[in-house]
Write a structure and sequence with these properties.
Strand order of the largest sheet of chain A: 1-2-3-4-5
Largest interface: A-B, 21 and 26 residues
CATH topology of chain A: Transcription Regulator spoIIAA
Number of helices of chain B: 4
Radius of gyration of chain A: 13 Å
Distance between the termini of chain A: 20 Å
Structural class of chain A: alpha/beta
Number of strands of chain A: 5
CATH architecture of chain B: 2-Layer Sandwich
Structural class of chain B: alpha+beta
Largest sheet of chain A: 5 strands, mixed
Shape of chain B: globular
Oligomer: heterodimer
Strand content of chain B: 25-35%
Helix content of chain B: 25-40%
Distance between the termini of chain B: 33 Å
Largest sheet of chain B: 5 strands, antiparallel
Helix content of chain A: 40-55%
Strand order of the largest sheet of chain B: 1-2-3-5-4
Number of domains of chain A: 1
Order of helices and strands of chain A: EEHEHEHE
CATH architecture of chain A: 2-Layer Sandwich
C-alpha cells in the first residue's frame, strides 16, 4: 500500500497495491489506522487501481476505514473500482454508506 | 456417471498466507477447462472465502489442516474444501448475509453469500466438533462468444 498525504487539503490517499484478502487486510488495517489517527484527515481516498483481487475481507476493510475516518469527522471515497469489485461491494450494501468517485483530478492535483 | 477429466488434491496448514496459494493453485488447475477471465475470478474469490473460513473459524486457537479436492468434468469444476475444525452449529444462520461471529476482526459476514453468487451450486455440511466440508461447482461454458477473441 502506498500512502500519500495532501497536507493543505487534509486529504489522505491510500493506494492499495496488494490483493485484498484476509491475510493482507490485517496488515493494511494497522497501517491505515495509524495514518488516519496521526493525520486526522478531512477526506480519505482509497485507490483500487492496482487491486487485482478482492474477497469479502475487502468489505470489512472498507467499512472499518469508514468508521475510523468518520471518528475524526472525515469522509471516505473510493476511486478506480473495477466492475468485479464493485459487484462485491453492492452485494454487501457498502455503497449505501461509501461513495465511488469516478475522477480524483483536481482534488489531489 | 459423469466422465472425470482430471482430479487434484491439496493439503496445507491453516495459515492466512496460504489463502493466496490455495486460490491461485485452483485457478491454475481450472484453466485446463479454458474458462473466461470472469469464470476464473469467480472461482478464485469463492475458494478464497471458503479457505479463509476454515482458517479463521474452524481452527480459532490452533493450526489445523485444510484440504482441497478439485475435479474437472467436461464442462464443470467441482471443488471440495474441508477441515476438521470446530464445525458450524447453525449452517443456515452462518449462510445468512452479514451474519458473522467475528465482527471484531472486521469480518463482513458475506463469505457464503459470495460463494453462493459466484458459483453455480454450493453445499455446506458441518458437524460440531468434527469439521466442515464445502462443496461447490461451477459450469465452464464451452461455447464462448466469438467476439471476445
Amino acid at each position: 500500500m502506498n500512502v500519500k498525504h495532501f497536507i493543505e487539503d487534509k486529504i489522505l490517499l491510500f493506494e492499495f497495491t496488494e490483493e485484498l484478502d484476509h491475510h493482507e487486510s490485517e496488515k493494511i488495517r494497522k497501517r491505515a489506522d495509524y495514518e488516519i489517527q496521526r493525520f486526522m484527515p478531512k477526506k480519505v481516498i482509497l485507490d483500487f487501481k492496482k487491486v487485482s483481487f478482492m474477497d469479502s475481507a475487502g468489505i470489512g476493510l472498507i467499512i472499518g476505514r469508514y468508521k475510523s475516518t468518520n471518528c475524526y469527522g472525515g469522509n471516505l471515497e473510493l476511486v478506480n473500482v473495477k466492475p468485479k469489485i464493485k459487484r462485491i461491494f453492492e452485494m454487501a450494501g457498502v455503497l449505501k454508506i461509501v461513495s465511488i468517485v469516478e475522477n480524483i483530478q483536481g482534488q489531489t492535483g | 456417471m459423469r466422465n472425470i477429466k482430471n482430479e487434484m488434491k491439496l493439503e496445507f496448514l491453516s495459515k492466512s498466507a496460504n489463502e493466496a496459494f490455495a486460490r491461485i493453485s485452483i485457478a491454475a488447475f481450472a484453466s485446463q477447462l479454458d474458462p473466461t477471465i470472469e469464470e476464473i475470478a469467480d472461482i478464485k474469490t469463492s475458494v478464497s472465502e471458503a479457505v479463509t473460513n476454515s482458517i479463521i473459524h474452524a481452527y480459532p486457537n490452533k493450526e489445523g489442516i485444510v484440504k482441497i479436492r478439485a475435479v474437472l468434468y467436461e464442462d464443470e469444476i467441482e471443488i471440495e474444501i474441508s477441515d476438521t475444525g470446530i464445525g458450524i452449529e447453525n449452517v443456515n444462520e452462518a449462510k445468512a448475509p452479514l451474519f458473522t461471529t467475528k465482527g471484531n476482526l472486521e469480518r463482513s459476514g458475506m463469505g457464503f453469500t459470495i460463494m453462493d453468487n459466484f458459483m453455480d451450486n454450493l453445499k455446506v455440511e458441518s458437524i460440531v466438533g468434527l469439521g466442515t466440508k464445502i462443496t461447490m461447482g461451477k459450469k465452464i461454458k464451452k461455447i464462448k462468444d466469438e467476439n471476445t477473441y
